C-alpha cells in the first residue's frame, strides 16, 4: 500500500519511528534535543511572555527538523552511493549547512530573549 493511502495513525507511526531511529543513531540530534530541554527549563525558570515561548518552540522545531532532514539525506546518499563522490560531499555539506543556519537562528532567539530579560 502506498504511504499516502495509509491512515493518519499509520503515517504518524512512521514519523515517530523515524524520530526514534534518528535519536538512537545521531549524536547531533541528541545534542539538539538536550538543548531544547535546557531551553524549556530556562523558560520555566525565567517565565517570559508567551511570545518568547512560541519563538523558542519554533526555533527549536526548525533546528530539529533540519537535523532530521540532514540525517535522511545522509542515509539516502550513503545507500545510493557508498563511495566518496564530490557531488555527494556537496549534498552532505549543504544539508549540514542548513542545520548550522537553523542553529544560528535559534541562538539569535536566545540572545534576543536574554537582552529582553536584561532590560
Structural class based on helices, strands and sheet pairing: mainly alpha
Q: DSSP helix count?
A: 4
pLDDT under 50 segments (min length 5)? none
State mean pLDDT (0 to 100 scale). Answer: 94
Keyphrases for this structure?
single chain, 119 residues, mainly alpha, Helix Hairpins, 86% helix, globular
Task: Please describe what this structure looks like.
With 119 residues, this protein is mostly helical. The protein has a single domain, classed as Orthogonal Bundle (Helix Hairpins), CATH 1.10.287.3610. It is built from 4 helices and no strands. Helix 2 packs antiparallel against helix 3. The chain is globular and about 55 Å long. The termini are far apart. The mean pLDDT is 94.
Task: Briefly summarize what is shown.
It contains 4 helices and no strands. The chain is mainly alpha-helical and 119 residues long.
List strands and helices in order, with pairings.
Blueprint: H1 8-25, H2 27-46, H3 50-80, H4 86-118
Amino acid at each position: 500500500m502506498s504511504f499516502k493511502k495509509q491512515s493518519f495513525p499509520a503515517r504518524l507511526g512512521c514519523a515517530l519511528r523515524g524520530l526514534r531511529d534518528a535519536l538512537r543513531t545521531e549524536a547531533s540530534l541528541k545534542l539538539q534535543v538536550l538543548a531544547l530541554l535546557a531551553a524549556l527549563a530556562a523558560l520555566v525558570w525565567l517565565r517570559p511572555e508567551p511570545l518568547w515561548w512560541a519563538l523558542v518552540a519554533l526555533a527549536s522545531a526548525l533546528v530539529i527538523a533540519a537535523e532530521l532532514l540532514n540525517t535522511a539525506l545522509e542515509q539516502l546518499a550513503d545507500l545510493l552511493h557508498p563511495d566518496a563522490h564530490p557531488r555527494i560531499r556537496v549534498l552532505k555539506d549543504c544539508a549540514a549547512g542548513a542545520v548550522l543556519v537553523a542553529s544560528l537562528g535559534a541562538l539569535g532567539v536566545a540572545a534576543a530573549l536574554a537582552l529582553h530579560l536584561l532590560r
